[in-house]
Amino acid sequence: MSKPKFPPVNEQMDLIKRGAVEIIPEDELVQKLERSLKENKPLNIKLGCDPSRPDLHIGHSVVLRKLAQFQSLDHQAILIVGDFTGMIGDPSGRSATRPALTLEGTRHNGESYFKQATKILDKDKTKMVYNSDWLSKMNFEEVIKLASKYTVARMIERDDFTKRFKSGDPISIHEFLYPLAQAMDSVAIKSDVELGGTDQKFNLLVGRDIQREHEMEPQCILTMPLIVGTDGVEKMSKSYDNYIGISDSPKEIYGRTLSIPDDLIYIYYDLASDVSKEELKEIKKQLDDPKVNPRDIKRRLARTFVTMYHDKHAAKQAEEEFDKVFIKKDIPVDIPEVKVVGKEISILDLILEVKFAHSKGEAKRLVTQGGVSIDGEKVDEMSSLIKLKNGMVLKVGKRKFVKLIK
How many folded domains does the chain comprise? Predict the structure, then answer.
């Protein structure tokens, strides 16, 4: 393994601070970097992985990209898969107890997480560990001693616990153990810096306290913003269907990116792409210019994301396909086929048959919104009966097509 080549501390801090919400405490991080440079020894940069959500999206990429930046500075990236803590269930940002997973389930999800995360991280320079390796070995006496290091009053300071306590919602004792277990991860790997979203701030700070209790130099913490989803309202999440998945097809990544509100273009460029400071300034200038159509900048962003997670050729194809379908109003070449039986079917049953809706209520809403057509003809009556013909094309919404085969 070659010796690390650290840039000057001021250059490192310029990159580290980009997009960060908080660095706590910043002066301690500078000291750690100075010592690292003097001793030619990389810092241990920790990021915990939530194994309950193995499918990663652009929102997850924000903190992963920060970890990749630390890698580019020659520091050691350590991904901790919370296979043991996943059995507790992280209560952060939750209004109720999160369901726990099995150890086997968390391990499987952890492998999927790593495979996707290394689309962003340097696989050869990323160390992945499972926290069951140390947490499962703790006996009850050790757990009691760990629990004695933190008070209930301190735990209740956490925002989600406070809200649930005041509203009378149940808080299980085991949930108090989650931030303590996460803190023990920092002890186990001798973490110098821990990364996380702003919703993880409390847990990261507990890590500092528990490291002190173990007579270790406390880690610095760096929080990154939670990115808003494509709807421009809620935090990006698969449950809100407002996400851009990093393992999605080029067509999906391109189309979903173009659906974002204009006021998110700069934020996505800043937090979820590799554009330089100079490029960011130019993008900001263009977005502020009323003569420039933001759609053109958004198309460039969509190409950027497809190139990042696939390649340039895929980005070019995705754009051409999008233009064919949505600008020229053509039908895509590679649409799926579904076999149907009978001579006719109601439009609502047809939408359910091809699985474009989960319920009749959802199917009714799609028809009411005017997003349903057969061979280019809009279907706006919920009672419509469709005479089935071989090869007819059903379109639902902006991007869902299916060819009906008899």
Answer: 3
